[in-house]
Design a protein that fits this description.
Two copies of one chain form a homodimer.
Chain A lengths: L7 H11 L16 H19 L3 H7 L2 E3 L2 E3 L3 H11 L18 H35 L2 H12 L4 E2 L18 E4 L5 E11 L9 E9 L9 E7 L1 E3 L5 E4 L2 E6 L10 E6 L6 E4 L6 H37 L21 H33 L3 H35 L12 H9 L8 H12 L6 H17 L6 H24 L5 H6 L1 H29 L4 H34 L3 H4 L9
Parallel strand pairs in A: 3-6, 4-6
Antiparallel strand pairs in A: 1-2, 4-5, 5-11, 5-12, 6-7, 7-12, 8-9, 10-11
């Protein structure tokens, strides 16, 4: 059977040949994760993905979630899928064994997650939220809070969520109005309405633990007055079992374009005056707690979008090899029809999908490795350097990657022609599901603002400049390789122009040009992302080129040649277009700001 | 209430100030269509669109079509909508009064259709198909065929379809296997299976007339042996009423990503050996008959996609004006939150949508005007020139426009943030519905091949070069206008580069480079389309700039300023990126062709 979800050879290539993650065994916490163990983990994850999660991908979409009498029924097969996920101990891969975690390197966990998301990410959203909420408890909870909640969350016995958005407080979290009033016993009574809560209510678990952003009575307006609370659906009995209902009422679920298996809930807290929460972390420090979790959550959303694109690519490739339609370009009258992979326009779309997904895979796993290095590296200076790279890369991994992923899913649908529009094939669902990754966990507009307004100049621009130094290293070493000197030269020019563009943008946001600069925030994130894709592809091609100089096995030979072609294609055809975009950004045209609201169109 | 679907002021601008369509009254056939009449027609169309079609847009999506006992039930409110469409005599706007048509200029009909499609194009597909089938009868039918079918089709009493695609014959029509065997009475017995038939079966009309592509027994293989037949669902009694069932059996409908109100049917013809058709046109000339209809059908599909984008833009603009969220960039701590139209990233998206939809509107209506000129202009030389422009513009109107339209619908969804993903707002449906416009009526890959392989070099490239001369005229006259000399200079450079690119492509397809050239067919169509958008925006801005030099009314002033800004924005920010794409095309990189199928990825 054809490979699905993700190219295993490519996953292994990034883990072992590009990032050499077995080197992590040097560090005590990861000493067990040698190549054999890592390969076994990835194989097991892939098995679970193909055998248990993928089969209920379409069914989950069709069944959707049902809101009945205040409860939400998720698609029936999700129950078994969660059981399998828990049995395989996949619910807290990188966390401490004392709380039920597996203490895996983040890079390896990302490879496993890649298969899970590519198989059925609407189902996986549930676990993402649970784990994220657990991480908040682990990071900010008291010993008591951890004892009550943490292990049950990390092992997936209980669920978790994140109660942030309100009808009038979406991108502007500081506008929220949910209220917390301190009780005599130190707990808080919570009242308010939250919307867009993934897994906010569901029948998968016995209890749901809601971290809730709310404002303590009398606290300042805006983000400075927001605190974080832990609010369980059912209060917990002394023996640890779910007890009295805590007045967290689900008032409805959204009808959506995609991720139908993932319930998006509206919750009313304390409607009967009976919702009790405990403070998580410090008063008025809710937003900074959120920020701690943000990198993880945004990286995961990037993984969701990227994994949709990866699955869409392999489906398209498999289909293009089998579907016979039309003669080849320039064929004689009597020539037979060919598989559509022979048609140049299909090949262009396939190679576009291939090169982007490969570049994305390297970016995502690279961030994983940086996270592992932050954990293990001994010097604080190095730690800061790795953390700086992560901070700069997160908006790329979330914003840039999901924007491109949606475009790739669209191409992946087109390869199927009219069939791609039907529900007979997974392509249209991948496209629909992928759409929300561009929006939730901070819209991609927010990502672009974060990149320009915070990340570019953070620590005097050290993170950004450290990142470009990494790119330079690759360029320098590729310049001497025959097949790659041309592409290396183009990337060198792109890099130099990106530096100029970044300097121009950094200056602009400190000047009267701040508005046109922010109008170019998204294009700026785009050109940065393109440059990084080119970097990763050139890095990959450098390794491949070396291997091709030896005596690779036949199968490896095709793989390595494919690496060189991805780099050549992307850098010669797509990167130059991005360079023109850099020039347009630098020109700092002001039309977007100058045009009056009235001139935008009719009222 | 805010304007919806399309900016009426802009529609009027294109019709009267840009294309001056009242000048058509010079010609006898159009002498009644003075400005007052045209405005009345557009107002009536808009009324119908807003009051009758738009209200059942969402309902049609939710109800969808039901396949029950061999028949298809369309969404219930479509019945009334069709009645209104028929009562208003909108079903054959440009056709001869003797067959029930209104003899309207094509340009005016496009303006009306724009509102209909923007309001509810899944419903309108039914009429598009009926009219297209009617046109085949009018063009190729015998007097007898016309007498039996035509008026009933043009007035919408009976429906029509187009039976082309088969499971193994999609883009490759020549592979079809549906068979026709001549009977003693001159009719043909038809057997075969057709798929993806829009409106192939439905409960909207008393009879459905199917033009069917089939191969007469013994005819050559491929497209050279295809004939066209007229196959009614019910044979027609001597008194003109529907009679005996003609063995056209609907075997199912597709579950699709969008256009749920438009049934996509599988039809079995002659399963009981009892399906009779009459030849339409000449034996073995079915494909050329199809080609005659193709321009109309492709222009209409372009209009569908474009109208989705137009509606999505106005929805986004209205929402951005109302939705309060977040402080302005650079605001002080105590400043209030602002409508999101004040945020630079939202403005960039809005102006991107605005400039593209305006440019598209001009391109589409310009094609309409060319069609009118073909009809009325006295000299055959001029007729050929106009027809040449149409032929070159059709793949732009279908391929380029729908590709961009889908991207714009995506932006239009993003402006709504998380709400855009929900079914509470129309944005996600517009995106889903828009998707198929990139695929049906010849995939956009096919459009790009048509553009490069046929249209570019047709009549020694006369059509293409005539088109560029039109662009030149606009550039020359804008070069002297203060605000526009800069953009005019950029467009001049783009035009010159497009010429070089086109010459390079024309040479390449005659050489060994034919494969890499066809791999660049889609990018080549893209850069041509971008240049044409820039042309139209500069043309518009030239008119607006002149008006601004006078004493325009306050409301007009904002509109005209908006025209200048659209041109400045598009030409300064987006066109330069397209120029870099032209260079990349000319470089004629061969990676897409060189990479082996095995290197594309795992089997």
């Amino acid at each position: 059977m054809a490979q699905q979800i993700a190219d295993r050879r490519d996953v292994d290539f990034v883990l072992h040949e590009q990032l050499k993650i077995a080197d992590l065994t040097r560090y005590e916490v990861f000493e067990e994760f040698n190549r054999k163990t890592v390969d076994l983990i990835v194989s097991e994850a892939r098995n679970l993905a193909v055998k248990e999660l993928l089969p209920c991908f379409k069914e989950g979409d069709e069944l959707g979630c049902r809101f009945e009498n205040g409860t939400v029924k998720v698609p029936e097969p999700y129950h078994r899928a969660l059981e399998m996920l828990r049995d395989g101990e996949w619910t807290a891969m990188c966390d401490k064994p004392e709380w039920g975690g597996q203490a895996m390197p983040a890079t390896v966990a990302l490879a496993a997650t890649h298969f899970f998301y590519g198989a059925n990410y609407p189902f996986m959203v549930h676990n993402l939220l649970t784990h994220g909420a657990g991480k908040l408890v682990e990071t900010f909870g008291t010993d008591e809070q951890k004892k009550i909640y943490l292990k049950k969350m990390y092992t997936g016995q209980w669920g978790g969520t994140m109660l942030l958005t309100e009808p009038e407080a979406g991108s502007d979290v500081g506008a929220l109005t949910t209220k917390a009033v301190k009780n005599a016993d130190g707990t808080y009574s919570i009242t308010g309405n939250k919307i867009f809560i993934s897994s906010g209510e569901n029948d998968l678990v016995d209890n749901i633990i809601h971290p809730v952003l709310a404002r303590i009575e009398g606290a300042p307006e805006g983000t400075a007055g927001i605190s974080l609370f832990l609010v369980p659906k059912y209060r917990v009995n002394p023996d640890g079992s779910p007890g009295e209902f805590n007045d967290v009422v689900c008032t409805g679920i959204e009808e959506k374009m995609g991720i139908h298996g993932s319930p998006t809930c509206s919750l009313a807290l304390g409607g009967s005056g009976n919702c009790i929460g405990t403070l998580l972390g410090k008063e008025n420090k809710g937003m900074s707690a959120m920020f701690v979790m943000m990198n993880e959550a945004r990286l995961q959303v990037g993984m969701q979008g990227f994994s949709c694109a990866s699955a869409s690519y392999l489906n398209a490739l498999n289909y293009a090899r089998q579907r016979i339609q039309g003669k080849a370009v320039g064929a004689a009258r009597d020539d037979a029809a060919v598989p559509i992979i022979r048609h140049p326009d299909i090949r262009r779309q396939l190679l576009t999908m291939k090169s982007y997904t490969e570049g994305m895979r390297s970016i995502m796993f690279f961030i994983g490795l940086m996270e592992d290095m932050v954990k293990v590296c001994p010097s604080s200076e190095e730690k800061e350097r790795y953390q700086g790279l992560i901070d700069v890369l997160i908006p790329v991994a979330k914003g840039y990657v999901t924007d491109r992923a949606f475009e790739l899913c669209s191409m992946g649908l087109h390869v199927f022609g009219g069939y791609g529009f039907t529900k007979e094939y997974p392509q249209e669902q991948l496209l629909r599901d992928c759409k929300i990754t561009q929006i939730y966990e901070g819209t991609n507009g927010i990502q672009a603002m974060d990149f320009l307004g915070r990340k570019l100049c953070m620590n005097k621009g050290k993170g950004f400049s450290d990142l470009l130094k990494e790119v330079e290293k690759t360029v320098d070493s590729a310049a001497d390789i025959d097949d790659l000197s041309g592409p290396a030269g183009i990337l060198e020019r792109a890099l130099s122009r990106l530096k100029t563009t970044a300097a121009g943008m950094a200056e602009a946001i400190q000047s009267d040009n701040i508005h046109p600069a922010f109008a170019n925030a998204a294009p700026f994130l785009d050109v940065t992302g393109d440059t990084l894709i080119a970097w990763m592809l050139l890095w990959r091609a450098s390794i491949a080129s070396k291997e091709l100089g030896g005596k690779p096995k036949k199968k490896d030979k095709a793989f390595y040649e494919g690496q060189v072609k991805s780099a050549q294609f992307f850098i010669r055809n797509l990167l130059p277009v991005s360079m023109a975009k850099m020039d347009a950004i630098l020109a700092m045209d002001t039309s977007v700001i100058d045009i009056s609201d009235a001139a935008m169109g009719p009222k």
